[in-house]
Amino acid sequence: MPSITLTHTTCYRYRIAVSLGPHRLMLRPRETRDLSLTSFDLKISPEARIDWSNDVAGNAIATAQFDEMTESLSIRSRARVDLSAPVWPVFPIAADAASYPFVYSSDDRTDLGSLAKPQYADAAGRLSAWVESYVMSRPTDTLSLLKDISNGITASCRVALNCEMINPTKSTAVLCP
Asked: 110-134 pLDDT, tens per residue?
């Protein structure tokens, strides 16, 4: 059973001392049948009072309350998880979707709704070009396509986004080398 450590660090620096309002943090992985949380550590500076709750989907929510003025804020979480899912689960893929690209049925398009539409306009095609760079060959079957993209991103991404508002078509943060 593979174990991995997930680390998230966010740092803010302010020109002058500021008073911080409550911060809602979603940093603790949700446990599932295939993911077991073995340890979790949260460090926040300046010191904060942490209140834990769960949202309707079962996600752990930490609310940080600050008492002192500060010129910086640092939030670091580290979670250790054990994974028991198969490395490459083979999902049943409909025969008409076995080769990529494929056309969704009208029922599937209805079910997908707005999920099938891009969240951000990308007239330059930056996101498509980035994803396409991981595809090993064309034509391809759908499962191979998903494996290519997953393996490519896993092998090359080392830097996480550090943006106030994440928009993949406008971000200047380095995703991959």
From this structure: 999 988 888 888 999 998 898 889 8
